Amino acid sequence: MNLTSKKILLIDLEKLTYEVKSYTELQRYVGGVGLGLKLMDMFGEKDPLIISIGPLNGFFPYASKTSIVVNDGGVIEDFYIGGTMAARMRFTGIDSIVLNNTAESETILEILNSDVSFKRGETSSGSLGLPGRRSILSLDESKALLDSYFTTPEYFLENKFAKKNIKTISLTGTEVVSPLLMEKYQNLYHTLLARKHELSVNESSQPSCVNCPMGCERSKTGELGGNVLIHSLVACQYAEKIYSDVGIIFSCLNILGYDYTHEDIENLPGLIEETLKKLS
């Protein structure tokens, strides 16, 4: 896990090529929506579909969502999907995937760590990735479904998939990532897990997002917009009471080895607002 830069997987759908680039200047955008909006600013002329995680994804409870940023007819939209994708992406070593331009014909993307294979639309989803370590996001009739269950509000993702000729994205991560301070990490993890009563949803029997025991009925449709700090981490909005606590945020970041300062976190909303002004 690179703690000094952001590792971006850039995919050109028109040329069916890809490359991985690291950007130290993107570190201050933290992740999630902050990173996604800055990447939109950088690659906007290529009509990107941007999928991002934050520094807590794959490590802590309720940091369970994946951020998606698109340009929808001139309006920049940010929305969030639950399921397993955030954790799978953590173990690819990639902070963000940027899908630029448009494929000539219906295309399936099979991503294994930082490698991409381009396949034709008739390829079976069951043949993609590694069972038990993959997330599959695929168009299923009118909606895009992740893990055959989780989806997003509205139809921004479906419209972008159709426009770009994307049928399915399979994501598999096999890299081993361990916190530097394992004992302190485990203690904090269980402390946060025990605070599930502070979530603004009720426990249920529906499929749970990764690192969440709630199985709430509201996880299926994901989230749209909201608190930019929460969505830069990328935590669940229903855990806002927990992850709005700057002390908790810094405890999590420090245990993982990040050197963000209070000033970095305090400046983030202004940085995002500045980026949005440029985009508009």
What's this model, at a glance?
The protein has 280 residues and is α+β, with helices and mostly antiparallel strands. The protein has helices at residues 32-43, 85-90, 156-164, 182-193, 230-233, 240-243, 246-256, 262-279; strands at 6-12, 17-23, 49-52, 66-72, 75-81, 96-100, 107-112, 115-120, 134-140, 143-146, 166-172, 223-224.
Per-chain topology:
Elements: E1 6-12, E2 17-23, H1 32-43, E3 49-52, E4 66-72, E5 75-81, H2 85-90, E6 96-100, E7 107-112, E8 115-120, E9 134-140, E10 143-146, H3 156-164, E11 166-172, H4 182-193, E12 223-224, H5 230-233, H6 240-243, H7 246-256, H8 262-279
Helix pairs in contact: 1-8, 4-7
Protein name: Aldehyde ferredoxin oxidoreductase N-terminal domain-containing protein
InterPro entries: Ald_Fedxn_OxRdtase_N (IPR013983), Ald_Fedxn_OxRdtase_N_sf (IPR036503), W-dependent_AOR (IPR051919)
Domain Aldehyde ferredoxin oxidoreductase N-terminal: 7-175
Tell me what you see in this structure:
The protein has 280 residues and is an alpha+beta fold. The chain has one domain: Aldehyde ferredoxin oxidoreductase, N-terminal domain (Aldehyde Ferredoxin Oxidoreductase,  A, domain 1), CATH 3.60.9.10. It is 27% helix and 25% strand. The protein is built from eight helices and twelve strands. It has helices at 32-43, 85-90, 156-164, 182-193, 230-233, 240-243, 246-256, 262-279; strands at residues 6-12, 17-23, 49-52, 66-72, 75-81, 96-100, 107-112, 115-120, 134-140, 143-146, 166-172, 223-224. The strands form two sheets. A seven-stranded mixed sheet has the order 2-1-6-3-4-5-12, sandwiched between helices. It has a five-stranded mixed sheet with strand order 8-7-11-9-10. Helix 1 (32-43) packs parallel to helix 8 (262-279) and helix 4 (182-193) packs antiparallel against helix 7. The longest helix is centred in the C-terminal third of the chain and has 18 residues, at 262-279. The chain is globular. The two termini are 33 Å apart.
